[in-house]
Amino acid sequence: MTDDLLARHRAVLPSWMPLYYAEPIELVSGSGRRVTDAQGRSYLDFFGGVLTNMIGYDIPEIREAVERQLATGIAHTSTLYLIRQQVELAEKIAQRSGIPDARVFFTNSGTEANEAALLVATNHRRSHQILALRNSYHGRSYAAMGVTGNRNWSASGLNPLQVAWLHSGDRVRGLLARLSADEQVDAAVEDLREVLATQTAGDVAALIAEPIQGVGGFVHPPDGLFAGWKKVLDEHGILFIADEVQTGWGRTGEHFWGYQAHGVTPDLLTFAKGIGNGFALAGVVGRAEVLESVSAISFSTFGGNPISTAAGNAVLDYLIEHDLQANAARVGAILADGLRSAVGGLDCVAEVRGKGLMLGVEFVRPGGGEPDPTLTNRVFEAAREGGLLAGKGGLYGNVLRMGPPLTLTEEEAREGLAILVGAIRSCAGVAA
Questions:
Q1: Is 181 helix (H, G, I), strand (E, B) or coil?
Q2: Of 80, 164, 260, 305, whose CB has the highest number of CB atoms within 10 Å?
Q3: CATH 1.10.10.10 is held by the domain 63-322
Q4: What does residue 179 show for φ and ψ, rounded to 5 degrees?
Q5: CA–CA separation, 27 vs 431, rounded Å?
Q6: pLDDT in tens for each of the 432 residues of the chain?
Q7: Nearest CA-CA partner of 88 in 317, 286, 350, 282
């Protein structure tokens, strides 16, 4: 690599920070949905900095909004002072959240947002008992990691919370996978009642769930499951936290928030990633009654700073003005339908799943459902060789993940689809 950057990285950064690809790449420039590495190689980006570069690269409206704020000389004041950009963005998010009488607290990352949601939920309910989903991921801090149901991402077995685990909605493996969608919902609701009766003291604070599990490999339950759960939660006064860090802002195509597919409204909603389009910006939205459940002074020094919220306002305005939710539905269908048609019938493909521009392909060994992370990695590397960047995930590391910018064009979708199909068929030993 240029200037032996890989050796320098390994000399000063911890080994538990992963690097993609057998030969890691440094991305040095980007435009639209394409990035260029230090060797001058161009790639179509189907992962967007882990679903974060939601609008793409080098977008004039976002760059100009940030430059205008920088030109004032104020990059930071702390939230001890009024911040116009922060207030304006909070107003927009509160209105779009679907939560009545909403309040917004800004943080720097999805981890911090989930940590804040857990803080207010446990305060509000005066309980440290939490319901969480198997195969979930909610962040790398102490409490957020405690409600993460994926051992690959649980860096510590210590936990400040008492957690009871529900089924994830996985339709490839697990106890509920063999059921129809309606049967799975009924079984999951019955399981929730049993978990409450047997694994908790009754006064549970909240259920936290991703509408589509991100790190978990884009696993998602049948639509309506959250509604079934919410009915039981309401009987006990238990709060519902929707982790929308990856599913928010119209990425699923059919709705602005992932929770809306279930016909419910959460008590708390966390967001991050795409709203900053690369700038550190995240937060939690909640009913005032719940979000005000903080009994001492608390604030985030950098959360909602003038630079990040200037970017956030520009991102949200661009998203709405260009109806990127509709684009995600339209372009995502090209990818999903194309993948199912071209490779969905292969013995090595267990499932093509997801919604909008949040799609995954799960690979297994032919003749059974055993996960095949080796094949997944070969496809992952082959796609890069073909000029396409994607992601990996899943409990067993056997899911290829795609979360392109929501500005992806139909032509780019077809280009990426051709590269993906070619990589999958080649690595699976199938003739083109």
A1: helix
A2: 305
A3: no
A4: -95, 160
A5: 33
A6: 447 999 999 999 999 999 999 999 999 999 999 999 999 999 999 999 999 999 999 999 999 999 999 999 999 999 999 999 999 999 999 999 999 999 999 999 999 999 999 999 999 999 999 999 999 999 999 999 999 999 888 888 889 999 999 999 899 998 999 899 999 999 999 999 999 999 999 999 999 999 999 999 999 999 999 999 999 999 999 999 999 999 999 999 999 999 999 999 999 999 999 999 999 999 999 999 999 999 898 889 999 999 999 999 999 999 999 999 999 999 999 999 999 999 999 999 999 999 999 999 999 999 888 999 999 999 999 999 999 999 999 999 999 999 999 999 999 999 999 999 999 999 998 865
A7: 317
Q: Taking Cα atoms as reference points, which of 241, 245, 236, 315 lies closest to residue 279? A: 315
Pairing of strands 27-31, 102-107: unpaired
Query: Residue 108 CB: number of other CB atoms within 10 A?
Result: 21
Q: What's the rounded Cα separation, in Å, for the pair 270 and 243? A: 5
Q: How far apart are CA 219 and CA 213, in angstroms?
A: 5
Q: Which of 221, 16, 196, 201 is nearest to 135 (CA)?
A: 221
CA–CA distances in Å: residue 1 to residues 44, 320, 335, 377, 415: 21, 40, 33, 21, 28
3-state secondary structure of 333: helix
- Structural domain boundaries in the chain: 13-59+323-428, 63-322
What lies within 8 Å, CB to CB, of 196 at 6+ separation is 164, 202, 204, 232, 236
Reference 55, options 279, 350, 387; nearest CA is 279
* Crossing angle (nearest 10°) for helices 306-321 and 84-97: 40
Residue 123: count of CB within 10 angstroms of its CB:
17
Cα(93)–Cα(283) distance, integer angstroms:
10
> Global pTM?
0.96
The DSSP-derived string for 24-81 is: ---EEEEEBTEEEETTS-EEEESSHHHHT-SS-BS-HHHHHHHHHHHHTT-S---TTS
Question: Tokens 């990695």 — which residue?
Answer: 377
What SS3 state is found at 102?
strand
CA pair distance 252, 329, nearest whole angstrom: 7
Q: Which residue from 191, 198, 203, 268 is spatially nearest to 228, judged by alpha carbons?
A: 191
